[in-house]
Structure formats: C-alpha cells, structure tokens
Amino acid sequence: MKKCSKTKFCDVARLSVAPMMDWTDRHCRYLHRLLSRNALLYTEMVTSPALVRGGALHLLDHHPAEHPVALQLGGSDPEELAQAARLGVAAGYDEINLNVGCPSDRVQSGTFGAVLMRQPALVAECVAAMRAAVDVEVTVKCRIGVDEQNPEEVLPEFLSRVGAAGCGRFIIHARKAWLQGLSPKENREIPPLDHDLVLRMKGMFGGLHLSINGGITDLEQARHFLDAGLDGVMVGRAAYHQPADILCQADRLIWGQGADSDPVDVVGRMQDYITEHLAQGGRLHQVTRHMLGLFAGTPGARQWRRILSEGASREGADFGLVRHALDAVLEARAQVVA
Fold first, then answer.
1. 8 Å CB contact between 209 and 189
2. Residues near 173 by Cβ (< 8 Å), separated by ≥ 6?
3. How many CA atoms are closer than 13 Å to the CA of 188, on its beta-carbon side?
4. Cα 292 to Cα 306: distance, rounded to the nearest angstrom
C-alpha cells in the first residue's frame, strides 16, 4: 500500500471541507480560503462523463487563491476517469478524489458513488488508472458500507484492495449509505455514525492516511479525532453553515500557525472578488448565498442574513448591499457592548 506521498500536502489534509453539491462551488471555496490559509478545500462532485464526453470544462473553473484545492470526480469507467483526472491536473488541481460515497438516485444510475462500495475491485481499477495518468495524489472518499453490508467486513477489504492499487489517502464517511428508501439528505442524518470503526481501521492500516467525516460539528471534536490517531478530519455542513466557527481558528488550533482570521475583515477582503464577479456579468447572490452563515450565533447575524437574502437577487445589487449588512452587524455588536 502506498503511503501519502507528499508529507506537506498530507499535513494540509489534517482538516478539510467536504465536497457538497450545490454548496462548495468556486465562490464558496474562495470565501473559505480567506477564513483559513491551510484547510484543504474540495470541489463539488464533477462527473467524468461531463468532462470527457460533454466537454464541460467550465466545471473546472477555480480561482488561483483557492489552493490547496482538490477536484472530486464521479465515475466508474477507469479510462474515462483517467482522462478526467488529466483534465483536472491540467486545470491546476492539487489532488484528484474519487467519490465512492454519494447515495443519490442520479449517481446510482450512473453506476458510481456509494454503489461502488459493492465493487472494490472496480474502484481499485479506477484508482490504478488515475494514478498512472497523473502525478498528483489520487484519493478516495467512501462510506463504511451500503445497505445490508457488514461494515466490519467490507470496509477492511475495501481499504486493502484500493490501497494496494495505489490510493494512500482515504476520507471515510462514518455512516452506511442506504441506496433505497432514504434520500441523500436522510443518508447524511439517519444511518447511525460509527466513528469507532474508522478509528479501528487506522489501527489496522497504519500506513494509510485516514480522515474521518460525518457528524463533526466543531474544532474540539476535530482535535479529539486527531489526538486519537487519525490523520485528518473532514467537516461538511458545519463548515458551510457556521464557517467562521470551523475555519477562523483552524490555522492556529489545527496547525499551530498564526492568529485567527476575523469575519469582519474577510467581508472587506471579498470586495474586490465580488466587484470582479459582477463586472463579468455575475449576480451578487451567487457569492453572498455562501456568506449567510458568516456571523452565525453572534450579534447581528439575523440582520446580516435578512439584508443579504432579501436584496442580493435584485437587479443592480452590488457590494454596497454587503457593506450595509455588515454595518448592521457592527451596530448590533456595539449595542451589546454598550
């Protein structure tokens, strides 16, 4: 089994933000990078057929400031995935990740995502093909099993086979996926978490870099898993809905580097990005929808969300609206102090 080949990059993977469809687009990732210099960011899943057969190369667009950033691919054809991986590397991505965890009907019909937990030999073929095609790390995000599978049996076999094919780093969502009867949203909440199983896998596969995903809501929890011996922690919805809580302290608490970032300062630093986006024909809400949770749990959060939610979709809305929303936050803070 191949160990994580780039020590510095594996260190970055100590904390990552999960790939989330309709959420972790390039605007979201730019914001998250301003909050944390180190956290590893992932794209939404991009299917290999869309890139190779559909020529949808715009799906690979990203800002240079996003690095380190990984491209997550969905697919099950080894040669097509290899071609898609080449396109991702040519676009500048630092890592290629294979989705073996998404349970949606659309993904199942394409014979990829969580359904591939039933075919570890095919996943191994896909990883080997991508590894041969690119010189960046190829990783896998998986579940602990699907449907009636026994995770205690299938997960070790999966890690062993796919690890032998050249994958040195896995992100394990510590829930089963139910392919029938549960929606993708329910699959993120209903199947019970088994964090202990992932910890046991680290004991069995010490040469693999294993990150844990699922149900992690704060940095204290993340540090607990790192202290317990896991190599990385991936945070999903909490990093999106309360990005400051997860990312503002991450560089200091996870990597021991520098001071915490300030959400107020980050809003100011978004001005040039937003202005450029609008100049290229974009709309304000395409960016600000990812900023709604920036002040979650703090004075002024409600006013911030209301002003942006009500105004960002209006014709002509620009950064002035963001300044207005920020003023409401600062006023609410001042009232608390007074």
1. no
2. 101, 141, 142, 143, 144, 213, 214
3. 14
4. 9
Instruction: Give the orientation angle of helix 151-164 with respect to helix 195-204, to 10 degrees.
Output: 40
In the structure encoding, which two tokens stand for residue 258, read together? 């520098």
Catalytic-role residue among 4, 102, 167, 248: 102
Beta carbons of 170 and 197 less than 8 angstroms apart: no
pLDDT at 189: 73
Rounded to an integer, the average pLDDT of 209-220 is 97
Kindly write down the DSSP assignment for every residue of 150-202, as one continuous string: -HHHHHHHHHHHHHHTT--EEEEESS-B-SSSS-HHHHTTSSPP-HHHHHHHH
Q: Where are the beta strands (DSSP E) in 164-307?
A: 169-173, 209-213, 232-235
Any idea where the domains of the chain sit in the sequence? Answer: 7-255, 263-337
How confident is the model over 144-190, as pLDDT tens digits? 999 999 999 999 999 999 999 999 999 999 999 888 777 777 767 77
Angstrom distance (rounded) from CA 115 to CA 95: 23
pTM above 0.90, yes or no: yes
Residues 6+ apart with CB under 8 A from 240: 17, 20, 23, 24, 28, 290, 293
pLDDT at 316 over 50: yes
* Token couple for 286: 């395409």
Q: Which amino acid is at 324?
A: H
Read off the pLDDT band of 11 (50, 70, 90): confident
142 is catalytic: no
Q: Collect all residues with Cβ–Cβ distance below 8 Å to 315 and sequence separation of at least 6.
A: none
User: The domain 7-255: what is its CATH number?
Assistant: 3.20.20.70
CATH architecture of 263-337: Up-down Bundle (1.20)
